[in-house]
Request: fold
Amino acid sequence: MFSSGEGCSVGPGRGSPPLRLTLGSDTYDAIHAALTERLTALETQKDLAASVAFTH
Reply:
């Protein structure tokens, strides 16, 4: 994660900046909770998804 003084410029040796820059622990916690909820919902469909797969 970047500190406020680091910036997120792209250049030689810096790599790519993050797609989404999460600033603040409250923002991080909210995003983490939402993604965890989505992952849990996805995992409940795993058996169904595998049962209709085109390749096994």
Observations:
- The mean pLDDT is 83.
- The helical segments are 25-43, 46-51.
- Residues 9 and 52 are 44 Å apart (CA to CA).
